[in-house]
Amino acid sequence: MEASADAGAAAAAASARTLRWAGRAGHLGGFPRAAVFAAVGAFAKAYASLLNTTTVHNADALLRLVSARPRGTPLLTISNHMSTVDDPLMWGFKGFPISDAKLGRWVLTAEDICFRNVVMSYMFRLGKCVPITRGGGIYQEHMNEALDVLINGDWLHSFPEGKIAQDDEPIRRLKWGTASLIVRAPVTPIVLPIVHSGFEKVMPENLFFGRRPPVPLWGKKIDIIIGDPIEFDMASLKQEASAVPHDSSSEKKGWPIITPDGLDEAAQRWLYQKMSDKIQSVMERLRKKLLNLKQH
Predict the structure, then answer these.
(1) Domain Phospholipid/glycerol acyltransferase spans what residues (predicted)?
(2) H-helix or E-strand containing 236?
(3) pLDDT at position 261, please?
C-alpha cells in the first residue's frame, strides 16, 4: 500500500510539474499559445533565413503534408539531432508557416532539460512540447500523451536517436519509442524522414570551456533534406511479429500485451527493432544524399 501511495504521489508531482493543462488548445482562449508561436517563429525565421544561410531540399513534401494531408491522418516527422536548437530553427526556413499555432508541430522533448521548473514547463507546454522522461521506457505516461497527438490526427516530431550527436557520423541506432507510437496509433501516421546539418555549428556543445554559447551563432550554412514518406505494411509486420517464438527470458520490462493484435513483449521487441532498422536505413541514405548535394 505504501509503495502504491508513493507511486501515486510521484505521478501527481510529475503531472503538476509538467502542466499538461497548459498545452490544451483552449487554454485562455488559445492566446498564450499563439503568442509563443509568434515569438518563437520570429526568432526561428531570423536565425534560419536572415542570420544564417539555409538550403532546404524537397521542402514541398513537408509543406504539403503539414497543411493539406487527409483529415484525421496523423503526421510523424523524424530527424537526426545535432543541437539543442534543431527545433525550432529547422522550421524557420522561408515559406514555412512556423508562426501558425494550429499547424505547428508537437515535439518530444527531454523532461530534465525543458521541464525543470514551473515557468519552463508552462512555456514549453504553450510551444506544444511533450516531455519525455529519460529511462522511463516506451510505455511511460508521457508516451501515451504523445500517442494522443497521433490519435487526434495532429503532427508530431521525434528525434529517434534519443540524444544530440554533433560529429559527422552515420545515423545511430534508434530508440524504439518512435516505432512503438507508429504501431500503437489507430491510424498509421505518415512517417516523413528529415536529415539536416549545420545546426551543430549554430549551437556547438563545446565552444566556451566545454559549454554551449549563450545564444545561437550566425553566419553558418544549414542544409536540410526532406525525404519521401516511409511505407509500413502494418498488417504484414504484425502478422510476422505474432509468429515470433514466445521467450519468457526476454520479458525484462513487463510490457502490456498490445490489443487487439495480442502482441506479447517478445513480438513487440521484434517489431520495434524491425521498424527502427528500416527507419535508420532510410535516414542514413538520406544523410548520404545530403552530403552528395552539398558537394555539388
Answers:
(1) 75-199
(2) helix 234-242
(3) 82
Give residue 101's identity as a one-letter amino acid code. Answer: A
Q: If you search the block for the grid coordinates 519521401, which residue do you land on?
A: 228
pLDDT digits (tens, 9 = 90+) for 253-293: 678 888 778 899 999 999 999 999 999 999 999 999 999 99
Residue 285 exposed, middle or buried by CB count within 10 Å (0-12, 13-18, 19+): middle
Contacts of 92 (CB under 8 A, 6+ apart): 41, 43, 44, 45, 46, 47, 48, 49, 54, 98
Q: Where are the beta strands (DSSP E) in 120-243?
A: 129-132, 155-158, 190-197, 221-226
Contacts of 107 (CB under 8 A, 6+ apart): 87, 128, 129, 130, 156, 157, 158
CB-based contact 223:52 (threshold 8 Å):
no
Q: Which three cell numbers mark 118?
A: 514551473
Q: Which residue has the cell 549545420?
A: 198
Question: Which value, in Å, is the radius of gyration of the alpha carbons in the chain?
Answer: 20
User: Pairing state of beta strands 75-79 and 155-158?
Assistant: parallel
Give which of 102, 123, 88, 118 is closest to 196, Cα–Cα: 88
Which residue stretches of the chain have pLDDT < 50?
1-5, 7
What pLDDT score does 259 carry?
A: 73
The count of other CB atoms within 10 Å of the CB of residue 154 is: 19
**What is the value of pTM for the model shown?**
0.93
46 phi-psi bin (left φ>0, alpha ψ -120 to 50, beta other): alpha
| The three grid cell numbers given for residue 132, joined into one nine-digit string | 519525455
Question: pLDDT (tens digit, 9 = 90+) per residue, 197-214?
Answer: 999 999 999 987 889 999
